[in-house]
Amino acid sequence: MDVTHIIEGLNDAQREAVTAPPGSTLILAGAGSGKTRVLVHRIAWLIQVEGLSPWSILAVTFTNKAAREMKHRIEALLGQPVGGMWVGTFHGLAHRLLRAHWQEAGLPQGFQILDSDDQFRLVKRIIREMNLDDSKWPPRQVQWFINQQKDEGLRADHLDHGGDPYQRQMIAIYREYEAACQRAGVVDFAELLLRAHELWRDRPDILQHYQERFGAILVDEFQDTNSIQYAWLRLLAGSRNNLFVVGDDDQSIYGWRGARVENIQDFQAHYPDTRIVRLEQNYRSSGNILSAANAVIANNPTRLGKQLWTDDGEGEPIRVYGAFNEVDEARFVIDRIREAIDHGMARAEMAILYRTTAQSRLFEEALIQQAIPYRVYGGLKFFERAEIKDALAYLRLTANPHDDPSFERAVNQPPRGIGAKTLEAIRLHARDFSCSLWQASEDLLRGGRMTARAGGALRGFIELIGEATAEAQGLDLAEQVEVALHRARLREHLQKSRDGKGQDRIENLDELINAARQFDYQGEQEDLSQLDAFLAHAALEAGDTQAEAYEDSVQLMTLHSAKGLEFPLVFIGGMEEGLFPHSMSAEDPQRLEEERRLCYVGMTRAMRQLYLCHAESRRLHGSETYPLPSRFLREIPAGVVQEVRARPQVSRPYTPAAGSLGAAREMTGFELGQRVEHPKFGAGVVLNAEGQGSGARVQVNFEAVGAKWLVVAYANLSPA
């Protein structure tokens, strides 16, 4: 059999991964090493060489965009469609499974998916119904608690409060939330995975069917899996030893949202016969950038280990700029961007990365002053925009009127005279009789227990949904969307907007119709209507982490948002202790390791040029600080770094008299950068010195109290 088209162009390590014999396989794929290519060619190898049917392959990606791209590339490589192959995100695949086995999973056939915003609104409603003070029980915090428990595979009934009143109340809210979701026939994102895991755990017959079906299971971005995702995979794999996982423990940066780097680090312990292949040849960055990134990440003691390299040469040195303050830092970065633009570089080829979102403001101001177009990456995506979510709420109600979150969103949007008092009466009835808000509304109207005005407004809404549902029968999907928009009068409402954005929002509604018209419904779920499939698609896309394509503009983003992207020119700002690594992580070994992985990710986004910036002075949380340069800068080999000198016309935030380390020692007896101890303030580092004789002063940045100027003659400082 001629397999040239599958293995040609692959390097030795990629070829070893693609052609690996059956059995558990771990591919440690470094940044820019071609992991997507390996996955695509591996699937082609399984189909053409190992003789597997596409129907027997399951491939898990972390974004819907990646799933679509993978399927397209496989079909292009094989020259044939791969229908029947399951390719998708964990949530998408779990949704597909639950649609096929809704009865066995204890769900209504037409169950809907709550996105994060709808889940928040439901949590907020439950807190209110339980007569709790939402200042003491913040809905966002409760929402995070619920999702965290689900990610660990825990129901409310599994949790033990241990006598803790706070934990007892959180569990009680979680229990009420579960009941509300069950009544409304809705599931949140975390529930998709938990319910799918429970389905396989509790129904061995269904699990066996899928274990026999899927001869090969492939997983991308394995380092980002959480507890329930890995448990789901292990149940499906069983003892068949057919997991092929691709990931990079050095790029595990989402521990704060449940990802467990231990999943990839312990994989070989769970599957002792695992074959490990390291993809270390990088096709993105220059040699100097890789040398720096390798040196930084080597300081993490628990990593599995690999060494990125390239045959494209060393390239330009990494440039480190020590700014006087954050304003000077922003000026320096934007000046370099202006120079790059003047030399013909596209704006979209440049990115400014930072640890915290608050850092973006000064960069934005400097870009505006220079009239340079920019975009803050990770803004609201299409299906997350308010007007789109309003329209989808109406559509969901036509599919399932008992969907409580959609009822709450749509019932008075646009305003139709259904006030807070009316809604509270509906909620109380729903709670007392354990029914949906829709059923409660019908009960209250039938019993005549509402004022004429409130009853008329509520009846009008109920009739509106009924008429839209009836009118949509037999229409294609785009026409159904148009009917919902027309009945809801959302366009007329937006035309009255006075904030200047009404037309843009109306155009978004028009685009929703276009999205429905272009929606590719393949009918893989025979019992799922086209509308239900579209609504599920919208919810899953809203939960996706990939951003849309952007115009030619400088990209601003957090380091977390930068993962998976690459740019010829990259700036990383705020390379200072307390900011990066963040002060909340510096003293925790595990969190510090994740901060270092974040630095590694940021550095390896750069293809040709990388600038690392730090400031001697930075205003944080309303006060001036004098941070030390980040330890990550000190971990970079001197041979690959070029220090950029500040322009002389820029003034420092303070005016030191000491022009050198030697001058500072002569004046005060202490060197700049020397660690000292104070009887009251504790340990610190000398930042600056001025004056002579009895008037000599030093500025010390104390770990406990920050920066202070002290007169040397009276300070009683001693070397630490």
Query: Major sheet: size, sense and barrel closure?
Result: 7 strands, parallel
Query: Helix amount, in percent?
Result: 40-55%
Our count of helices gives 29
Structural class, judged by helices and strands? Answer: alpha/beta
- Summed over residues and divided by their number, the pLDDT gives a mean of 88
Q: Any idea what the CATH architecture of the largest domain is?
A: 3-Layer(aba) Sandwich
CATH H-level name of the largest domain... which superfamily? P-loop containing nucleotide triphosphate hydrolases
The CATH class name of the largest domain reads Alpha Beta
By DSSP, the count of extended strands is: 22
Q: What percentage of amino acids are in beta strands?
A: 5-15%
> In total, how many domains does the architecture comprise?
5
CATH fold type of the largest domain: Rossmann fold
Uncertain runs with pLDDT below 50, 5 residues or more?
Answer: 648-660
Shape: globular
Radius of gyration over alpha carbons?
29 Å
**First CA to last CA: what distance?**
71 Å
| Strand adjacency order, main sheet | 11-12-10-13-14-9-17
Report on this structure:
With 720 residues, the protein is α/β, with parallel strands linked by helices. It is built from 29 helices and 22 strands. Helix 26 links the parallel strand 13 and strand 14. It folds into 5 domains: 4-101 and 193-281, Rossmann fold, CATH 3.40.50.300; 112-184, Orthogonal Bundle (Arc Repressor Mutant, subunit A); 291-380 and 549-644, 3-Layer(aba) Sandwich (Rossmann fold); 382-542, PCRA, domain 4, CATH 1.10.486; 661-719, Thrombin, subunit H. The protein has a 7-stranded parallel sheet with strand order 11-12-10-13-14-9-17. It has a 6-stranded parallel sheet with strand order 3-2-6-7-1-8.
